[in-house]
From TrEMBL:
Family as reported in the entry's similarity comment: Belongs to the RLP family.
Record keywords, A-Z: Cell membrane, Glycoprotein, Leucine-rich repeat, Membrane, Receptor, Repeat, Transmembrane, Transmembrane helix
Organism in which the protein naturally occurs: Ficus carica
Name of the protein this chain belongs to: Uncharacterized protein
InterPro entries in alphabetical order: Leu-rich_rpt, Leu-rich_rpt_typical-subtyp, LRR_dom_sf
Spans through the membrane: 498-519
SUPFAM superfamilies the record matches: L domain-like (SSF52058)
Any one annotated GO CC term: plasma membrane
The keyword Ribosomal protein belongs to this UniProt entry's keyword annotation: no
Keyword Mitochondrion: no
Membrane protein topology class: Single-pass type I membrane protein
Primary localization: membrane
Amino acid sequence: MNDFSGTVNFNLFLDMKNLTFLGLAKNKLSVLITESSSIASTANETVPKFEFLLLGSCNLTSFPDFLRHQDRLKFLGLRHNQIHGKVPNWFWNTSIETFLITDNFFTGFGVDVLPSRSLRILDFSKNSFTGALPIPPPSTTYFDGSKNELSGEISPSFFNLSSLELLDLSYNNLSGVLPECSINSNHDLSTAGDSKPYFSFGSQLQLLDLSYNQFRGYLPRSLLANCIELRVFKLENNHFNDVFPSWLGTLPKLRLLVLRSNHLHGEITSKSTSDHDFPSLQIMDLSHNNLSGLLPSHYFQKWNAMKYFDASELPNLGSMNYLTKLSGWTFKFLHRYTVSITNKGRELDYEKIEDVFRVIDLSSNKFQGDIPKCVGNLQGLQVLNLSNNILNGTIPSSLSNITQLESLDLSHNMLSGKIPQQLVQLTFLVSFDVSFNRLIGPIPQGSQFSTFDGSSYAGNTGLWGFPLPRPNTPSAPPLGSGSDEEGHDSRSWFESNWMVIVPGFVGGLIFGVAIEHVLAIDRRDWFIRALTVGIAIKNKARKGRILRRTT
């Protein structure tokens, strides 16, 4: 990759008869391919026979016609151009093995079944392909058709691709039910007898992304249980209507499982007696479903990959490396995928996932009961979201053991009791939300808690402390409350003014007694005498106060 700019006439390279590798991609060039280029390629046998041609980001607007005469072409990169229309049918007569046309305006391939017998890597993502999903040849290992406008059901023959390592069909309009199983068409069923059928799909698959489509029905166990190499599995934003697929826990390398925004229902139960259910799982997102019952404490105890922070021995999670060797050349390129995760109070798209990233999101379901104390054993977690459920009980202090936690959302539940003071130990906590529960008592102070505003605690009328005022705070503190200094000041004031307070109190008391006597015996002279005595005592006390001041 350089930073060349300007316009390049492609005819300059047609006289280089021994040129087999030409790479102009990742610059700021505009490559001019004229009709004369195609004519020269046809008439002149001395023009180069390209094997590798990289014309990405070259401002091309049409498919290069001269390629119809390049019968040795194995690697063609046309990514990030402005090419419209369909891939011409004649192109499939080449010996193409890697075909990269992502980020253009292509609308189709012109054929439903790609006739190439040598194709291994096909990336046509971020285009405008419509209609049915094309069927690639059995040699295909990498198939990325994401972010197009493909529609309809997937042909069952698509799931006979036994060599697939990556399948990304996300962000389309595909629909229907995934087949329950895929039997290799080359397998002779007549001789199979009572033996188990041979399933061809998924044995090499590392990434499967069908998210943001219209798929419905059950998750096909017999189709997916054979994917022992699967690391990334994403089905969010579909219409799958099933119970939690606990059988996926048998996949030893599964690290990312995203099933959010479907119609999963029922309790999460583990039918396996193994201690290795989901042994490599780092990201689990089941949010926005209809799951119910208790939180899966048995899984919290088994998810070992979430119990530690060091990921030095794990392969990269945010991208998948693919190597292809052609004519002595080795090409390495990355497939980056996006994961939408609710973190720090917002839904964020992660295009690059760090190896150490660990997430549990069970929000917006119908989970009830207590938060298990054993969740505190998942010390590598960075995001824990249990919001919008029916959880009750108290917040376990064991959450303070998750020292790497950056986001904790327990809002919109029925939690009660106090916020554990131990949570101030979470020094990496950036987002904290316990709003709309039934919590009471003081808010922990110190560390990260000094950075959270009142929205983190809204809807808990029994909580008080920064940043909230204490509930039902009186306008003046009661007698005896406050610091020792305040108590000393109160006693000093009383001691210095007792001569004023006591006579008034005595006078009022005698006056009240006199009134009571009047009401009791109804004699006016008693009232006059009592009143006279009260006034005399009050005057005497006043004289004593004046005398005290003058001395």
